[in-house]
Amino acid sequence: MTIPQVVIPLNNYYFYELQKNKWIMELTKKQTIWGIILFGTLIGLNETVIGGLHIQYKSVILSTITISLLSYARYKIPRPGTSFIIILIAVLFKLTDLGVYFCKPAMLVILGIGFELFASFLIRSNNSKLSGYLSTCFLTSIVTFTIFAFFERYVVGNEYWVSEKFNDYIFVKAPLTAVFSTLLTITGLLSIRQLKPGFIDSLVKKPVQSQLILGFLIVAMWIAGYITANYQIS
C-alpha cells in the first residue's frame, strides 16, 4: 500500500525568508562591497542634492531618507559595521562634491554611529522582524537629533542655535523624522519582501552582469552629484 505524500504549501513570507537566507549565504565579498558602495552613494547623493535645496524641514527630509536607506542596506547586508562604513562612503561623496568647507558632515556621522549602535542590538542577522528595524529608526532619529542639537549649541557654540531652534530640533524635527523614517522603512521593507525569488536568484547567478550595472549606476550618480553640487555652489 502506497502512502500518499502530503505537501504543505509554504506561505509567501516563509518562502521569501528561505530565499533571503539562501541569498545571504551565497553573497560573495565582492557583492557585499558593491552593496555597501551603492547604498553609501545613494545616501551621499541624497545629502548633496537635497541638502543643497532651500526648503523647509530639509533636515527632516534628509534624515528620513538616510535612515530608511540604512535600514534597507541592513536588511540586505545584515552584518555588523556595514552601516557605519556606508556613512563613511556618503561623507566621502559629500567631500568630493562639496569640498571641506561646504560638506559639514557632523550630523551625518552622528546619524551613522547612532544607527549602527542601535542596529547592533535590535537587528540580528537571523532577525527579520519589522519591530527591530522600526525601533532602530525611531531611536536613531530621537537620539541623534538630540545629540546634534547639544553638540551645535554647547560644544561648537553656534550662535544660530538659540533656544527656539534648539527646542525645535529636539521636540519637533526629531519626532517628525522618527515617524516619517519609520513609515518609509515599513513601506520599503514590505516592498522588498514582495520581490520574486527568481529576481533574487538572477542577481546571484549573474554576478558579472549585476556588478557591471551597479558600477555604471554608481559612477553615474557620482558624476551627477558633482555636477549638481557645483551648479548649486556657483
Could you please describe the fold and organization of this structure?
With 234 residues, the chain is an all-alpha fold. The protein has one domain (32-47, 55-233). The chain is 79% helix and 0% strand. The chain is built from nine helices and no strands. The protein has helices spanning 12-26, 29-49, 58-76, 82-103, 106-122, 130-155, 163-192, 197-205, 207-233. Helix 4 (82-103) packs parallel to helix 9 (207-233). The longest helix is centred in the last third of the chain and has 30 residues, at 163-192. The radius of gyration is 20 Å and the shape is globular. The N and C termini lie far apart (84 Å). 28% of the residues are buried. The mean pLDDT is 82.
Distance between the termini: 84 Å
Question: Strand portion, in percent?
Answer: under 5%
Radius of gyration: 20 Å
Order of helices and strands: HHHHHHHHH
In one word, what is the shape? globular
User: What is the oligomeric state here?
Assistant: single chain
Mean pLDDT: 82
Biggest sheet statistics = none
Helical content stands at: over 70%
| Structural class by helix and strand composition | mainly alpha
Features:
79% helix; mainly alpha
Outline of the structure:
The chain contains nine helices and no strands.
